[in-house]
Amino acid sequence: MHIKAIFFAIFHPQNGPLVIAQVPDHSVTPPPPSCSPDPTQSVDIDPPLIDFDRISDFLIPKQELCHRLVTVVTDQYRVLGYPVCLVDPKYPRNEFIFNFSVVLEEEQDFSVYKSVVRKLAKMFKALEEQTGWLIGDWVEPEEHLDQLEKQQERWRMVGARVYALIEQVLEDLNNYSECMIPIDESNSINIKLFPTYAPPPPVQPFHVPVSTIDLATHITTSWDLTVQRIVPFIDGINSVRRISELANCDYKLTAKAMSHLLYYGCLVMTDVFQFSAIYAVTPEISMLLHEKGVMEECIAYIYPSIIPGTENAVLSGVDVFTLYCSLGQGLTLKKWCMEKSQKLKGVDVRRFITFGVIKGFLYRVHKWPVWTTGLGTQETPGRERVKMGDVLGGGREDEVKAKLRKFVKTGCCLDEICTEMQMSGKEVLEAMEDMDVTILCR
Amino acid sequence: MASATNPPLTPNSCLVAILLVIRSSSGSSLPFHFPPRPRFEPTPAASRITSLTTDYDTSTSSSSSNSSSDEDEDRQSTLNGRHNGTGCMTEGDYSDSESRTRVSRRSGKRRDREVSAERAQERDDRVREGLMPWDKFLGIRTDVLAGLLTPYTASGKGKFEISVDDMVFVGQPVRLRPDGTWRKRKKRRKSQGKTDAGNDDDDEGENGEDSIPVQEEGPGVGPKDERLNALSRNGSDTIDVTNDADDEGEAGDREARRKQNEIMSMFHMVFVLNPPELEYHYRVREVYEYVAKRFSRALKYEQAKDGYVSREVQKIMRLKEHAAHQDMRYSELWRQLTDNSSLAYAMMRVFLDISQSRIAHVLLNNNFALSLQIPAITEISVLPSITDPQVPGLPLTTANSFGDEEHKGDTLLGKHFTLLYLEDAATILKDLAAESTEASASLQHFVKSCIPTQSFLTISQQSGIPLHEIQVLARHLVQWRKARAIPPLQARDIYIVSPNADMKRLPQYIEKYRKEFPSLPALPKILGSLSGSPKMYNTIIPTKDHRPAYLDILAWMMKYGLVTQLRSFAWVKVPRSIKLQSPIALPDNMINSTSSLLSNSSASLLEDPESEDPALLRDSFILEPDRASGIESAWLEMMTRNQSSDIKALFERFLKYLNGRHALEKIPVREMVPRKDVRKVFKALDEYIVYVCPFLETCGNY
To answer: Which superkingdom, per the lineage (chain A) (predicted)?
Structure first.
């Protein structure tokens, strides 16, 4: 994240596209040969980053491209510009075209700088329109040739004024990612770089949020009301649906608040923790051995209340690793805990599992009820209806079954069904017992 | 940023349009673009920040009604024509598309009334300026746009990339060289017509692709094109001969250049993209590398040969002129262009296929069959977490087929792999049979011999096709999405329901399966039996006679990403007891240096380095046992000291697999050791090995 150069280019009434100011010096156009008659001095000057003449068509373009964000890739650099064209009879040729451009490396992510370039352009457009800050009305349309020298002197002044500003913009943005530079009593350049984050993933009712920071300490009364209400229930155990119930908040608002927290990385999502669940390791498990600090982090996390000086009771890295490896398909957590109860003394099993899931080296093996015969549409007739007549109050049961049938048909995992039906996994499986359903583990 | 590290899994070319711009002595122009009216929607708010802080990119609802398919355009144009009551449909059409772009540029501030006023204004403009509907593109006058897209000097390595707002224009301009030719020639060819046209122009970094005869052409897709290709190869030579007159002398060069200049001195196939902010670099690179560059190269070749591009451009210009006189409808003209010009047709095909992530097969100049595609991600090795974007159905496997420590780079498939056809082998064969080239014959032979239960090595031994050739052919089939490379399917391996199986589509699969295997147990039954604790696949095969059928089922399930092989990984653990017994007594002053050496190389001691007790005396792993340090070797020696020499020797050979990166299933195949011996070794040294899957228990029947 680094701006290589900023420059200010205009359309010069006599000379065409011209760079008036550039930071660093000579980063865009080479110094005029007359400027450095002493050959020893010019040795130090690096060649320009880009060839301005080659891309000037894009930066000082025809009117059609003005007031649009234009980027050009040239010589491994990307130039971002926003050409502005002011039409006024006071300007020579009735228009004044200028562009504040930013030079970045080609492969760099440039989305944050788009707003910088837009802002600079719009700001100086307004300044020029209102106060004539850039060139104002001193360039008379009927300039005589003998005044050429005077005119050049004025361009130099404009250049110096702009130079001071863009130099500070470049320095501040590169060093502090923001700048606040007063221009006159009523105007200042205020820019802050915001990184672009990916949009947050969709939140599902059966997701379980785990906070990555201590949200409670950051919370203030100015925070969103829903966020304030739900934060106390984010404990790594409650699902989003459950949190909305506990906090007495609308589910949609809860989910929205969750996406906000996800967007800023305050949360990660896992799935419901149950002892009936099955977990298995993924090949990522080797990160525990190869990545520095992960094992230490893990051990610190899985012992909720570690007392200093009792390290002997703590599992070694080898033990933790071996424990993770002993999880696997077909083995419920409950059974695993009983097998390993000796080793697991003092370990918070939920944290043990959650750590693996968040780091991506454990995955939950979900249960998926599936119609044994394929499409479950033929499933409804006869038998079920008779049953409904048999049992008093079978209406509710039938309703549940109808719902379950729908879930199975649309391909939902058991977690999702449980959350939606507000039933335990065991209850759902029991209700499905007489349905022609096979449970797949995936 | 995040975009650079994880390429998005979902295929999406973000393609908005393809433009052909040229420059001639009379200026720059845009002869053809596809689609006729590109659908340009501003980038979906990829980030909250930008959508909050910028008011420029907000889309207007009117742009969403735009449609690019021909049928819709017709309807739309008729509607518009009627609406405006002008009777001239072209006009209505034109002003509609025009105002749309205008509106979106002015951030939607104008309302409908103003729009219609603007529409009338546009009409007037058009009458005054004599503009035709195709004289504007995405709101920019085409002559301005064409001028921008045909720069005089090249920048970078031939790549051209600019963006205007959220539209990216990327391509590789092709210029007439100062000597009046389009391609650099290695040496002057004096004897004309002797060599084949395909061989003499292979310079300028063709990536060696042309050296493989089948590389450029799809495996038997579009059989008609292929036949044409084969037929017209002979014909192309004659054209070449006549054209070679240009090479005769300096005067000829100059003359040629002058002539060419009048028609065309540069052409540029520009791809217009609209990528989301975070995927910008990735999407632009994909389209440039795989489509734009290759397409341009092919066109340059044909242009150099007999002026194909300039000929087509002239044809398009003539048709457009004709249309202008006739007041022809916009969509009708485009239909005429794609019907009459093979280049316009090719651009249409490339646009339609690439934007739908398909393979585009085009025929240039009636003889050059070109296939273009953006490679799709065909398998993943890491399961996406629950909040990651999901692509269910994508096969999940850690068996990385390319350059699998064969030391042969990326281009060859491992010899211990095989192919799983993604289409019916019969269909592939049928397509191949339609071509009569030499390459297709060997491909056919290979397709017939290749079965998913045998490795390339075995297939090579049985069919007599050299292994190297098999690897090339197999790669070709993989590249063109006909097959996927997998480790051979074996009944003695473990298969589980893939954690990435597409459960939403399972009902469809069940139906399909029922048709394919009507007499065998239903798919849910099979998947159900693979759902419990891992076991070898042959435990669900009822009798020996069912074996072939069940392996077919397995291949079928693999094809749809429903199952995946569960592979075992292992590490060597050094318990404290071994360390204590280790004969190498460490002098006190050695401990520090050794431990630092260990932490640098391969041992993970996982202890607090500050602790008094030397970390060396606690349990640890040997992370890279085949590159064991001195002390690690001593420990390994200690572990095997009571074993027979056979086991010792085998264990030493197996060490390189015990680093958590290699599946244990590879050992019998690669080391040519019977499975029961492998098992014997692991059983003997069980206490020193940590498995990631219950390897020994599940492999009990070795």
So the answer is: Eukaryota
Whether residue B577 is found in the same domain as residue B543 = no
Indicate yes or no: CB of B506 within 8 angstroms of CB of A322.
no
Q: Which helix (H) or strand (E) holds B555?
A: helix B547-559
Do B303 and B230 share a structural domain?
Answer: yes
In a domain? residue B630: yes
Domains held by chain B: number: 5
Whose structure tokens read 């998913």? B452
The listed range with the strongest mean pLDDT (A192-196, A308-312, A352-356, B430-434) is A352-356
Same domain, B503 and B365: no
Paired residues of A278 in beta bridges: A332, A365
Residues B635 and B530 in one domain: no
pLDDT average, residue stretch B366-390: 83
Asked whether residue B470 falls in the same domain as residue B507, the answer is no
Same domain for B586 and B559, yes or no, is no
Q: Do B692 and A196 touch (CB under 8 A)?
A: no
Cα nearest neighbour of B528 on chain A = A440
Residue with tokens 């219950």: B694
Which residue, B550, B565, B580, sits at the end of a domain?
A: B565
Listed by start position, the domains of chain A span 5-192, 207-271, 280-365, 367-441
The better pLDDT of the pair B38, B340 is held by B340
Instruction: Tell me: do B360 and B312 sit in the same domain.
Output: yes
CATH, domain range A207-271: 1.10.10
H helices of A205-347, in order, are 215-218, 225-230, 240-246, 251-263, 287-290, 294-302, 317-326, 333-339
Residues of A whose CB is below 8 A from B506: 370, 411
Q: Which of A207, A263, A441 sits opposite B531 (nearest CB)?
A: A441
Find the CB nearest A330 among B534, B619, B692: B534
pLDDT tens, residue by residue, A91-129: 878 888 999 999 999 888 898 999 999 999 999 999 888
pLDDT given for residue A374 in this prediction = 57
**DSSP string of A105-121, one letter each residue:** ETTS--HHHHHHHHHHH
Q: What b-and-e string marks burial along A202-214, b requiring 16 or more CB atoms within 10 Å of the CB?
A: ebbbbbbbbbeee
Tell me, what's the pLDDT at B566?
A: 87
Domain boundary among B565, B593, B609: B565
Q: Is residue B20 part of a domain?
A: no
How would you write A173-238 as a 3-class SS string?
HHHHCEEEEECCCCCEEEEECCCCCCCCCCCCCCEEEEECCCHHHHCCCCCCHHHHHHHHHCCCCC
Shared-domain flag, residues B165 and B265: yes
Domain containing B441 equals 418-486
- What are B607-651's pLDDT values in tens digits? 444 444 455 567 888 888 888 888 888 888 888 888 888 888 999
Whether the CB-CB separation of A254 and A242 falls below 8 Å is answered with no
Residue B32 host element (H or E): strand B27-34
Taking the C-alpha atoms of A305, A309, A312 and A317 in order, what is their torsion angle to the nearest 10 degrees? 60
**Within a domain: residue B191?**
no
CB hemisphere CA count around A109 (13 angstroms): 18
For residue A115, the distance in angstroms to the closest alpha carbon of chain B comes to: 7
Residue of B nearest to A201 (CA): B387
Q: What is the ipTM of this complex?
A: 0.83
Confidence (pTM): 0.77
